[in-house]
Design brief:
241 residues, alpha/beta, 5-stranded mixed β-sheet, elongated
Length: 241
């Protein structure tokens, strides 16, 4: 089974609804059980997903909200409609992202496994080592919150350092990397310099989409992050391929 909802990696903080309904547009809404309230909703996102309110409308019998979300695997945008009454009935809740969620929030009947990918190749050995070190730090950041992590770069760099005669390009590790990805529930891309040019990351994204494995992004903290923040999950990420 796949970790079908990448929003479960994010810790969502409930917030009060806007004072005026005209201000709903652009706000984030989490609906724990889409399927329970809309059993016919094949066009709706997975249970527990977070959607963005695009607008309010009156269908003649009730007010509805047009909501949008991106497919967690293909990154294609989708829209649907949910009753505005869900807010008053506590079936939908306004939220804001507030960091990395504990792994117990994951959907499924077994621990979720995350595959961490990032850029590595560079003519400067010190640069390659720094990228591998960041991948290991990011893996530890996830693991401290209970997530299971596969970090091919952490393993591959250690092997490359010990075997100077071994190739270090992605082609040499492609088979094992893609097999590890196939055994994972979600792909998490650590955004470092060179990420858009990385052949390995590109292959991972393409393979994950082919298999329907959700894609996620994590980045180094911004200048306004708290002093102890090591990494930040990217809500509603944009992809370059």
């Amino acid at each position: 089974m796949r970790l079908c909802n990448p929003d479960c990696l994010i810790d969502w903080k409930p917030v009060q609804p806007p004072k005026y309904k005209k201000d709903y547009e652009g706000k984030l809404l989490r609906i724990p059980t889409f399927s329970r309230y809309r059993p016919d909703g094949a066009d709706l996102p997975p249970d527990g997903a977070v959607v963005c309110i695009e607008r309010r409308c009156n269908n003649g019998s009730q007010f509805e909200m047009q909501v949008s979300w991106r497919c967690p695997a293909c990154d294609h945008p989708h829209t649907g409609y949910v009753p505005e009454a869900w807010i008053a009935e506590d079936k939908a809740q306004f939220v804001e992202p507030s960091g990395l969620a504990d792994a117990t929030c994951a959907i499924g009947d077994h621990p979720a496994v995350l595959y961490l990918a990032t850029s590595y190749s560079h003519p400067d050995a010190a640069k390659r080592a720094a990228r591998a070190n960041l991948a290991s730090q990011c893996s530890a950041w996830f693991m401290r919150r209970g997530w299971c992590v596969i970090s091919p770069l952490s393993m591959g760099h250690a092997i490359a350092v010990e075997g100077a005669e071994l190739p270090s390009d992605f082609a040499a590790y492609q088979e094992v990397c893609l097999r590890m990805l196939e055994a994972s529930d979600a792909l998490v891309v650590l955004l470092l310099d060179g990420i858009r040019e990385s052949v390995g990351v590109a292959a991972g994204i393409d393979h994950a989409r082919k298999l329907g494995i959700p894609l996620n992004q994590v980045k180094l903290p911004g200048p306004d992050a708290s002093g102890d923040a090591q990494f930040e999950l990217v809500h509603n990420p944009r992809w370059w391929r």
